[in-house]
């Protein structure tokens, strides 16, 4: 995929890499290794860098107003650009980010709390996560959480969220624990086994 929106907006120095509008930068499937070329364009609202070879996206930390970010199918291991290191610190997307796709990367843990508190959709499928910890508890607007095809052993850290859609399929969960009792608004659920799904609703285990 190679989709560009072009306008009179100034282009980054590596103009052969990007064409864009004043609010969108899309460059998918081109084997890019970094995102530095757009790091200073803090008015971007939509960035799609999926299907590349990017390991580190910390150069985007100044994009506070971004609304949609797709970094799926890369080689990312750390969420550090999204993590609050200090109280009230601003992070990537901390003012506006609503949709974040980090599926098909190499993320094994989330260290710290995410600063993108307006997030509505978070996709972390096909990574190497074993647990969510309590790292999502400040995401009070989150409605869709997709973490299929990981190594989750527990649902700890998912309870208490205002979710409507939850995908836990293809993990290493045996039972769902009491996660559903704390997710009253969930309407669409995917899990790896019909037994565990029925257990959660019928027996409250």
Runs with pLDDT <50, length 5+?
Answer: 1-10, 13-17, 192-205
Order of helices and strands: EEEEEEEEH
Helix fraction by DSSP (H/I, runs of at least 4): under 10%
Specify Rg, calculated over alpha carbons: 18 Å
Largest sheet: 8 strands, parallel
Distance between the termini: 44 Å
Total DSSP helices: 1
Mean pLDDT: 80
* β-strand amount: 5-15%
Number of strands: 8
Order of strands in the sheet with most strands: 1-2-3-4-5-6-7-8
Label the structural class: little secondary structure
State the shape: globular
How does this structure look, described?
- The N and C termini lie far apart (44 Å).
- The protein is globular and about 45 Å long.
- It is 5% helix and 12% strand.
- It has one helix at 194-203, and strands at 24-26, 46-48, 68-70, 99-101, 121-123, 144-146, 165-167, 188-190.
- With 205 residues, the chain is low in regular secondary structure.
- An 8-stranded parallel sheet has the order 1-2-3-4-5-6-7-8, with no helix packed on it.
Task: Summarize it.
The protein has 205 residues and is mostly loops. 5% of the residues lie in helices and 12% in strands.
């Amino acid at each position: 995929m190679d989709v560009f929106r072009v306008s009179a907006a100034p282009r980054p120095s590596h103009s052969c890499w990007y064409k864009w509008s004043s609010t969108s930068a899309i460059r998918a499937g081109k084997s890019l290794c970094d995102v530095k070329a757009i790091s200073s364009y803090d008015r971007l609202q939509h960035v799609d860098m999926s299907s590349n070879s990017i390991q580190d996206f910390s150069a985007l930390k100044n994009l506070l107003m971004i609304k949609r970010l797709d970094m799926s199918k890369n080689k990312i291991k750390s969420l550090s650009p999204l993590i609050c290191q200090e109280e009230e610190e601003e992070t990537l997307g901390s003012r506006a980010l609503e949709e974040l796709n980090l599926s098909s990367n190499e993320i094994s843990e989330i260290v710290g709390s995410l600063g993108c508190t307006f997030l509505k959709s978070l996709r972390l499928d096909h990574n190497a996560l074993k647990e969510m910890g309590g790292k999502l508890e400040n995401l009070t607007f989150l409605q869709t959480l997709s973490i299929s095809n990981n190594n989750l052993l527990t649902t700890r850290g998912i309870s208490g969220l205002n979710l409507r859609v939850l995908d836990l399929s293809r993990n290493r969960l045996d039972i769902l624990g009491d996660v559903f009792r704390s997710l009253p608004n969930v309407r669409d659920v995917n899990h790896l086994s019909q037994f565990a799904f029925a257990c959660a609703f019928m027996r409250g285990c």
